[in-house]
Prior knowledge:
Protein name (chain A): Chemotaxis protein CheW
InterPro entries (chain A): CheW, CheW-like_dom_sf, CheW-lke_dom
Oligomer: heterodimer
Pfam family, one (chain A): CheW
Distance between the termini of chain B: 62 Å
Shape of chain B: globular
Largest sheet of chain A: 5 strands, mixed
Mean pLDDT of chain A: 86
Structural class of chain B: alpha+beta
Largest sheet of chain B: 6 strands, mixed
Organism (chain A): Sphingomonas echinoides
Amino acid sequence: MALFLIAQIAGRPVAIESSQVESVVDIGSIIPVPRAERQVRGLAALRSRVVTVIDTRAALGLEAAEVDAGRAIITIVEGHYYAILVDALDDVAPFDLTPLSAGILLDKGWLKVGRGIVERDGEPILAIALDGLIPGALALAA
Amino acid sequence: MDDLLQEFIAETRETLEALSGEIVAWESAPDDRDRLDAIFRFVHTVKGSCGFLDLPRLARLSHAAEDVLAAVRSGERAPDTRLVNAVLAIVDRIGEIVEAIDAGHALDDSGEDLLIAALDTGAEMAAPQAVSAPRSPSRSVRLNVDLLDRMMSGMSDMVLARNELARRVRDGGADPVVEAALERLSLTVAEMRDTVTRTRMQKIDALFSALPRMVRDTATELGKSVTLHIEGSDVELDREMIEMMRDPLVHIIRNSIDHGIEAPALRRALGKRENGWLNVAARQSGNQIVIEISDDGQGVDTDRLVTKVASAGLRSDAQLRGMSEQAKLDLIFEPGLSTKDMATAISGRGVGMDVVRANVEQIGGRIELHNAPGKGLRIAIHVPLTLSIMSTIGVGVRDQRFAISRQVIEEIVRVGGDMIRIDRIGDTLSATVRDRRMPLIDLGDLLGFGQRSPVMLAIVSASGGSYALAVDSVLDHEELVIKPAAPAIMATGVYAGQTLPDSGLPMLMLDCAGIAHVAGLVFGREAMVEEIEAEAVVPGVQALLFDDLDGVRRVLPLSVIDRVEPVSASAIRFSAGRLRLSVEGGIIPLVALGEWAPQSTVSVVRLRDGSVEIGYAIGEAIDIVELPETVVPAHDAGPIAGVVAIDGDQIEVIDLHWLFASHADAGTVSDAPLCLFDGPETAWMTTFLKPVLEGAGYRVATMLRPGETPRVVVRMSDDPTGSAATVPVVRLRRDADGDDGSIFRYDRPALLAAVARSTGGR
């Protein structure tokens, strides 16, 4: 059993394995990065570090939210700090990761981040990999 | 130097402490490979450090131990108890010596030969000695860079907290007492920040200061003499970066002295100064620090390199044949390759340029080689500015701030007034600043903020040209620590990195060369032509600067100098109507423009033009200089062709033609085919081409004497055609590219071939 963080992204619950999570923070002012892809919401200061803020909805190919999400999960990919914006954080608990049931096909951006399913009180929750949300990281890995 | 020694002592002491456990373990289990490796690394490190710290005793001990351990590692010797004891005795001895160095008292070196002898197979058992030397308290602390990182990040947090506090105090109405306290806090925080920043930053001098000694020692060991020049010692680099650069730099310099610079006798014969020349320079270039190591040695013999690679079976023959010159040169980085056939004490054991390149690439840098066979090798190490402190100017676009490296900004001007015009040429913006027209990029438009009429212009230079960058405002100057941004941000091509200034808000640093590229500006051609000229000029114009016998400073083109040598004054005689010099197996004419008799030995420059040889007595050779293109001709024909300006001095240029025409034994020169230089560029041709053509056996003139007919006329391709249509014409062009039947003026073989064709094949 691994420890998972349950968060809300675009109104849906998702599970994130805790090994990917560096910390969970409130994001203050975000400085935009002109000419960058839409997923890059901008830069923010996290203590003395500059983090790249990822607009999770944009990265998943969803509509923009009406209100900017204020919380973020900090993750480190290839030495760079990223803040993944989330709507809310629900819970931290150990779960068993099971593969996606046969026949279930993820769409849009979910396809590239989905890793399996955890079950909370009978409710299946999609487990995601945060590095799938980072633009440029996948291309480098390929 | 003392710093380095302290560092060495601290490091050795620390490793020894950590090693003591390993040593005991190795003693009980001599076959344990990990323990063996740990001890090998230790003696290897000590050996390396001793090389440039000048600690011969330690070097000898560690070298001996390393040899034995290497033999054990390769399986040539078995680690029996006797061997283990002998190695341990040496490790103990190293510890004692290090303590003695630190405490500053002498340590008797008797018994060290015994220790080394004990390493030999079949030697007597060495008795381990008790460590007795007193320890002095350490004056320095070695810190982990992670700790410095944490300190730095804590410091930045403190600055942000202070800013927050200041804001609150301002908003809540100021109590003067609180404000004064805050003021004091601010000062302290600022001072602390400086200090903490400095703990990570170091002048590159920390890297360079050990070089003079190292170069001297390495050169002495090899029986060479090398003059070292160091430039840019005050460039600042991240401490960690400096540490990473240390080994590659040392290795490259040793290579340079070992393989590059020739032995003095050979250099003399080649007409080079006996002292090899080694230049180590650091400078900041855009977003990088460039460390350049250049020497005037023999360069890299790529043919030999290729043979070597082929014989080592590292590449196939077909692969090697298809390689460009540069690719062949890059073979030097091939793993497992040593261009010297034997590993010397200098070049070390199995560490090659491949390791150097790997080290440099590990910190995100790259290595460039510029090879001039026979003339030298220049190695440029480019290290990213990552983590380096940069001097920046803040610019504002709408309500966002960006940083620009101060180094690329030529000037900042406000739009308005007579000096500055902004025009639209087609759809392209251009700015004219004091009669200088340049492209203009509207930063706001480029970054997608929309167009607005320019207010301030920052004139920046990037990739070979300058352009004006329109911004809304120019803010302040700040020293910032620039770090690389995430790949998705770097992919835009307009940013050099990100930073966190005092405001507590992240800021992006603009990459001015990248902006020019994204905006589609091309300065390429101009830059390329400059480069070609710079490269091509070098070979033609080297000249020997010397003090002549009459005290006047003069130059002689290097291309005709066979060698410079001291001769006994008794070898010079005035005989058969002229001055002559006895040389090995013959007599050659000698030219002396002053008194040579009072001296017992005279330096003579041996000049050779084809088969004709003459001597020229000089006072003293000074330097090899580059001959300027402009030669002011002398008033009358004579030994002096004209005057050039070198470093602000007027220097007379010897007229080689006159020298050979009036002093050489007659017969060979006058019947040579005559080549006429024509057109407005004759001065250039005289400086550059004359030695080339005369060397190939032609007579060269810029004006015809009555009754003379040239066999060939040389002129520039864009000169108006002269009247002499009956004589074949060789036309020269300025650019390397072009195929209008003319010849690139620096293409020596093609030029000679064309002249030979025109004069009827010679």
